[in-house]
Amino acid sequence: MSMPRVEVIASVERRRRWSREEKERLVAASLEPGVSVSEVARSAGIHVSQLFRWRKDLCDRVDAGSSQLVPVEIVPAAMSPAVETPASSASPGRRRRESGIIEIELGGGRRVRVDRDVDAEALRRVLDALGSR
């Protein structure tokens, strides 16, 4: 009768402590276009679920921080010469509705200008898409 082979583990593997910078580096690498999260996790020697957890934790903190109030500056629009339209010439007593332009500065030299009649939901989607870039 033969004895079954037994594996003896001599050392105790301890939990590894990851610094915030290491976590951020790995999360950023996993967010790159065309990169597999599994490959990033495997190269770091961690389970993919751990990397997804770090992504959730770090991205939730960033999203929570982005919902803070930001300074707003109201500046007068540049005066442009009035364009005579048939509607405005037909009723001289009635003022044309002035257009209100909203300019949103995103940082990095990027700005979005919209009319005051913009669909709020569409604007939110555009800003979300630009904010994720």
Could you walk me through the main structural features you see in this protein, from its secondary elements to its overall organization?
With 133 residues, the protein is mainly alpha-helical. It contains 5 helices and 2 strands. Strands 1-2 form a two-stranded antiparallel ribbon. Strand 1 and strand 2 form a beta hairpin. Helix 1 runs antiparallel to helix 2.
Task: Please render the helix and strand layout as text.
Blueprint: H1 20-31, H2 37-44, H3 48-66, H4 86-90, E1 101-107, E2 110-115, H5 120-131
Antiparallel strand pairs: 1-2
Helix pairs in contact: 1-2, 1-3, 2-3
Notable traits:
about 130 residues; mainly alpha; rod-shaped
The number of helical runs is: 5
Number of beta-strand segments: 2
Order of helices and strands: HHHHEEH
Taken from the alpha-carbon principal axes, the silhouette is: rod-shaped
Structural class label? mainly alpha
| Beta-strand share of residues | 5-15%
Stretches where pLDDT is under 50 for at least 5 consecutive residues are: 83-90
What's the overall average pLDDT, rounded? 75
Radius of gyration: 28 Å
